[in-house]
């Protein structure tokens, strides 16, 4: 039996940074499930699918072969054999994923199998929105990581500013709140805290403090 840690929470709570650090410290594989949904969206965008047409998205999703492999510990997402990592983290792909792609049951079903298989094959930290509730209901540890939308917007603002990109703090916060709403209110596998998940509010914590807290939860 493999050892699995599930980390869920809203956009911008720091899941990927934290999950990656925890995985490294515990010598587990890190599985970023958002990247799988993002790869599906990239495929739809590249193929010019009418995203408003749910049936078209369903038909197209059957043609997407999405897998992952690890290169020196880094997750590489393969879309029909091509490494697409560098195209996944754009605002456009994030928006399309949250609005049109992750809401389609057939897409979720297809990616669910892959996630379950990965968790069964390897000891891992898996992050996403529905890991503790749907993908790994029997995970060894479940964490629900969150922070206020103000704090999440401020972190994003600082990240963009550090890259020299201009943005408006209020708009970032509005976008984050809209994404939360969509992720929490979709019909299938909405974002919510599993009953047996430990809530960690990172609003007033540093990355190191959050990592230590999760390591402590996992040692219990
Ligand atoms: O974590 P992220 O920002 O890469 O996720 C992008 C979108 O993918 C997010 O808005 C919701 C969706 N998603 C999902 O529905 N289920 C997951 N397990 C992971 C992500």
Please, could you describe this protein's structure?
By secondary structure, the chain is α/β, with parallel strands linked by helices. It has one domain (4-32, 87-218): Rossmann fold. 50% of the residues lie in helices and 17% in strands. The chain is built from nine helices and eight strands. The chain has helices spanning 15-26, 34-46, 54-61, 91-101, 105-121, 131-135, 149-162, 169-185, 207-219; strands at 4-8, 29-32, 66-71, 74-79, 82-83, 124-128, 141-146, 198-201. A five-stranded parallel beta sheet has the order 2-6-1-7-8, with helices on both faces. The protein has a three-stranded antiparallel beta sheet with strand order 3-4-5. It binds 2'-deoxycytidine-5'-monophosphate. Residues 11, 33-34, 37-38, 94, 97-98, 102, 128-130, 179, 183 line the site of 2'-deoxycytidine-5'-monophosphate (DC).
């Amino acid at each position: 039996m493999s050892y699995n840690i599930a980390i869920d929470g809203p956009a911008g709570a720091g899941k990927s940074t934290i999950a990656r650090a925890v995985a490294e410290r515990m010598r587990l594989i890190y599985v970023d499930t958002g990247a799988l949904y993002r790869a599906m969206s990239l495929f739809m965008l590249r193929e010019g699918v009418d995203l408003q047409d749910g049936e078209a998205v369903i038909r197209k999703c059957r043609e997407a072969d999405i897998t992952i492999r690890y290169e020196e510990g880094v997750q590489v997402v393969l879309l029909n054999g091509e490494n697409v990592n560098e195209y996944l983290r754009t605002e456009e792909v994030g928006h399309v994923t949250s609005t049109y792609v992750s809401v389609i049951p057939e897409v979720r079903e297809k990616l669910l199998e892959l996630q379950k298989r990965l968790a069964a094959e390897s000891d891992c930290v898996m992050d996403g929105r529905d890991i503790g509730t749907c993908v790994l209901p029997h995970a060894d540890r479940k964490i629900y990581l969150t922070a206020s939308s103000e704090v999440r917007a401020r972190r994003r603002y600082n990240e963009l500013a550090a890259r020299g990109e201009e943005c408006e703090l209020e708009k970032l916060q509005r976008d984050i709140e809209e994404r939360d709403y969509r992720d929490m209110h979709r019909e299938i596998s909405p974002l919510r805290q599993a009953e047996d998940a430990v809530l960690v509010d990172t609003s007033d914590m540093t990355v190191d403090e959050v990592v230590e807290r999760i390591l402590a939860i996992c040692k219990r």
